[in-house]
Structures are given as C-alpha cells and as structure tokens.
Write a structure and sequence with these properties.
The structure holds two protein chains of two kinds. By secondary structure, chain A is an alpha/beta fold. Chain A contains eleven helices and 14 strands. Chain A starts with a strand and ends with a helix. By secondary structure, chain B is mainly alpha-helical. Chain B contains twelve helices and no strands. In chain B, α11 packs across α12. In chain B, 49% of the residues are buried. The chains are: A alpha/beta, B mainly alpha. At the A-B interface, α2, β6 and α3 of A face α1 and α5 of B.
Chain lengths: 314, 247
C-alpha cells in the first residue's frame, strides 16, 4: 500500500522476564500525525527504537517507508529522521556547526548545505544564536536545534520521541507550530507523548499504550466517545449540604472527602438551569459549580486504569 | 579513512580546541611536570647521565598518557548523551566514530610530545640519535599512541558515565610514574621494582632512551612493539565488542 508510511504487526520485545512490548500493531498513513500516548514506562521509546532500527524486536514485523526495519535497515535509515527524548546535539559546537555536521554526514553539497542551514536557522528562529556554542542554549533552543538537525536531508517520515517533555508552555506551542508546518509539507510524523492535550492538538490518530499493549486506537474524538458523557460537578461547604443535595439528586455520585457531587447530564444550559432550580427549591447552597465534558485525560485515565485492573486480575 | 571518519575527526578536534581543561591536561601539564622534575628534583637524582637526557623519553610517555583522560570522557559523552543514536540512524559507521577519537587522541599526543621535545632542547637535552634512530623514535611513539588510544576508547565505551570513564583511565595515566620514566627501575623498592621492570611502559621508554642516546637496543624495541601490538589488539577488540553490545 503506497499510502502507508509505517506498519507494524505483532511487535514484541522483552528484557528478561519484563515484557516491554506485548504485540503491537500499528498502521500510520503517509502525511498524517500519529501519536503514541502512554505513561512513563509504557513502552513508547522502545517502540520508536524498534521502528527506527536502533533496537531489534524479539518478534513481529515492521515496515517503514515500505522497507523492513530488521532486514533493510539502510533503506529505512535513509527515509527517516529521528529526534529522541534527550536532545542529541553537540554542546561544544555552535548551532550552525551542528547543522553543518548533519549536512556533511548526509553528503549534502557545500552550496546546497549552506542554503539548507540558513533556511533552517531562520525557520527555527535560531539565526541570532547560530554562532554561539550550544552549551549556552536554553532547553527550548536545544530542542529546536535538535529538530532542525533531523530535518537536514529532508526526511519524509519523522519520529519525535516526547519532543516537548520539560519545555515551557511557550516553547511547546512553538514546537507544535513546527510540527503542523511539517505535516502541511506532507511529512509523516510519529509522535510519542505523555501529554494528552498535545496528542489532542496535533494527532490525526492516537494509540494509547499501557504496559506494552495498545489499549485503544482511533481519532481523538473517537477516543473521547469511549468514556461516559459530560457531568456537572458541585462542591459544598460542609457535609450537611452535601447530604441534602444527594437526597435531592439521586442519580449523582458523591465524594465525601472532596465534598463534591457528580451529576450526570449533557452540560447544556437547559439542564443546568433545571439543576440550579432544584437546588434553589430546597435551599441548598453549592459553593462551586463546574461543567465537565470528557477530554482525553478522562479517556486516558479510564483506559489505563482499566488495563491495570486487567493485568492485576491475571 | 572514510569521509565519515574525517568528519568525526574534525568534530573531535574542535572539541579539543574548545575545552581548556583538555588542552591543559593533554598539552601543558606534561610540560609543567617536566619542568618540575628537571628543575626542582633533577639534581637530586643520580641516574648516571645528565638528568634531562634521562628524563626526556619518560616525559614523552607521560605526555601520551596525560592525553588519554579527555578521550575516555569524550567517548563516553558521545555514548551517554544521545548523539550516538543520531549518528546510528544516519548510518555513520561505528568505525568512523571510534577512528575519529583515536586519531584526535594521537594528534593531541603528538603535539604535546613536540612541545616536550622542544622544551627539552631548551633545557639542555642533547640526544646523539642518528636520523634513522629518530625515525625509529617516531615509529615507537606513534605505535604507543595508537595502542593506548584504542585501549582508552574501549574504556570510554565500557564505562557507565563520563565521570567513571575519567576515573577508570587514571591507572593508565599514572602508569609512567611506576616505570623507568623518572628514575631507573633498579633504584626502586622491592615489589614496585619488579612491577616497573615488567610493565609495558618501561620497555617503550627504554627503547626510546637507547635510540635517543645513540645506543639502540633491539631487545627493548621488540618488547616495546610487542606490548604496543598487544595493547592495540586488546583495545580494538574490546572497543568493538562493547560498541556492539552498547548500542
């Protein structure tokens, strides 16, 4: 299939008794952002390492850009760019020299290399710091340079392993814009993250990885549909108010510790007005009210929580 | 040498130039130590010949070993700071990465040795070596640099952190002090004396000493080259095996 950029089936990897990947199937279409989402230790980096030929899987097959990662490593490596979890930049070189190093290793001609480097420095807003040693760069600048280095040679499939972990909100947004720009150019992005909003913002498809298994896969909205609907959360000042409210609203679930009541509903204005009317009628005073629509956090917690109990049950 | 190795060499060379600690340890410190021994302590040693003539070959080996610390740390840095994965995904051969480190270490040592010999002449060093002897001297120095560089690359690869890599290479850096570099092994206490007589640096130093004095000894030269070959092979095989296991 020509529009599949990355395909994996039954990928397995174990270190001794510890199963890191327990049979992973993936299908990433070309020109899309695929996000592998999971908590620390779920197996995200291991998956990236297998797909980028840095690690041999114990079982299963994977093809990247149509080439088998186990037998045709050279062709895979020629097609991909990888930005790992820790900025792989050379601290004792300047930003410009780091990019030049990449251009040299990719055997980009001198004039073409110069053009690409100038363009990348500009695009990543690093022109001013280009002649400074990378050891003086901030975390955000390093990540940007790291990604710029990956882009030398114009790879069509890019792996980003937790590209924004540890970045401040502003740098994260810059990173997101860069990713969006790449996708607009038709590049395929394989992104791992532990941030749900990041996957929600960027990904066309998301796969949730937990304990080496995919527990869900789909578009962000498909995943959100998998969890119970929206609800209204009421907080009270004391347990007596909470008791009173719980009597009036029998369908709600109460949390005595937080003094909150979770009332299922669609979160619309009409039902909200009705709810407030009910409280008024019984002279119940709610301290705080908030409306919740399910976000990926709910999905994530629901899915990984369920997977945990399954594992425990075995 | 492959293009990739040349690119790696250029990168490592820039590292040396930008790291004042490396420049000091590898190039200046051996000269300082030589000045210290020759000026301050030299007159107290009776070694049968002028002390500067005795000490210069030892100082040459000291210059070789002092350059190794930086290499061990740098090799380990490459492995632990993630850049090695970038190189691997770009299909840069492990050979290129390691060769880059070996050659830059050798270049650094040779520069330091040139400085040592220059200062030695200024201090009154008067060798009686013929030009053929000098060629042999250079050959043995290059062999010693080559062998210790490979061993150091292996140590750098095997260590878990840059700090432990720097520490693991310390015995090799101190080895010249337990050889005939500063004083003849025969003048040392029992135990240390035997160690000094049989450790690799003594035959290397003695062969250089003989050549520079115009009295070359084939026995020392053969032992020296055998040690160099042995160390180089162990270092190379160990480095290759560790590299493969590690990445």
């Amino acid at each position: 299939m020509s529009n599949t950029a990355i395909a994996a089936s039954g990928l397995r990897k174990a270190y001794g008794d510890k199963i890191v990947l327990g049979g992973i199937d993936l299908d990433v279409r070309a020109g899309t952002v695929f996000s592998l989402l999971g908590p620390n230790g779920a197996g995200k980096t291991t998956t990236v390492n297998v797909l980028t030929t840095l690690l041999k899987a114990d079982g299963g097959t994977a093809r990247v850009a149509g080439h088998d990662v186990a037998t045709d490593t050279k062709a895979v490596r020629a097609a991909i760019g990888v930005t790992g979890q820790f900025a792989a930049v050379d601290e004792l070189l300047t930003g410009q020299e780091n990019l030049q190093l990449m251009a040299d290793l990719k055997h980009v001609g001198a004039r073409e290399g110069q053009r690409v480097i100038t363009e990348l420095l500009e695009r990543f807003d690093l022109t001013e710091s280009a002649q400074k040693l990378v050891s003086t760069y901030s975390g955000g600048m390093r990540r940007k340079l790291d990604l710029a280095m990956t882009l030398v040679g114009n790879p069509r499939i890019i792996f980003l392993d937790e590209p924004t972990t540890g970045l401040d909100p502003r740098s994260r947004r810059t990173m997101w814009d860069i990713v969006r720009g790449l996708v607009a150019d038709g590049v395929t992005i394989f992104l791992t993250t532990q941030y749900l909003d990041e996957a929600d913002q960027l990904a066309d498809r998301i796969a949730v990885l937990n304990h080496g298994r995919l527990v869900a896969q789909g578009t962000p909205s498909e995943l959100k549909r998998q969890v119970p609907g929206s609800h209204v959360r009421l907080r009270f000042t004391d347990v007596f108010e909470l008791d009173a409210a719980a009597r009036v609203l029998p369908g709600a679930t109460r949390d005595d510790e937080d003094l909150t009541l979770r009332v299922p509903g669609d979160g619309g204005v009409k039902s909200l007005r009705a709810l407030l009317g009910q409280l008024d009628e019984h002279s119940i005073d709610a301290d705080e009210l908030s409306v919740h629509t399910p976000d990926l956090d709910d999905v994530f917690l629901a899915l990984t929580g369920r997977a945990n109990t399954e594992v425990n049950a075995q | 040498m492959s293009t990739d190795a040349v690119i790696m060499l250029r990168r490592n060379f820039k590292h040396t130039l930008r790291n004042p600690v490396t420049v000091f340890n590898a190039v200046l410190l051996p000269v300082v130590i030589m000045l210290m021994f020759v000026y301050m302590l030299g007159n107290a040693f009776s070694v049968g010949v002028k002390y500067i003539d005795y000490a210069t070959p030892g100082m040459i080996l000291l210059a070789v070993s002092y350059g190794l610390g930086a290499t061990a740390t740098e090799v380990n840095d490459d492995m632990t700071k993630g850049i090695i994965n970038r190189f691997r995904v770009m299909d840069v051969s492990r050979g290129a990465v390691m060769t880059g480190h070996v050659i830059v270490t050798m270049l650094r040592s040779l520069i330091s040795i040139a400085a040592i010999i220059g200062v030695a002449f200024a201090l009154g060093f008067r060798p009686s070596a013929s030009s053929l002897d000098w060629l042999a001297v250079i050959g043995i120095i290059v062999a010693a640099c080559f062998a210790t560089s490979w061993l150091t690359v292996a140590v750098g690869l095997a260590a878990k952190t840059p700090q432990s890599a720097g520490l693991a290479i310390v015995p090799l850096i101190l080895l010249p002090f337990f050889s005939s570099a500063i004083v003849p092994a025969a003048k040392m206490g029992a135990g240390v004396r035997q160690f000094a007589e049989y450790q690799p640096f003594t035959p290397i130093i003695e062969s250089l000493r003989g050549l520079l004095a115009g009295t070359p000894s084939a026995g020392y030269a053969i032992t020296a080259l055998a040690w160099c070959a042995g160390i180089a092979i162990v270092g190379y095989v160990w480095a290759l095996a560790t590299f493969r296991k590690r990445v």
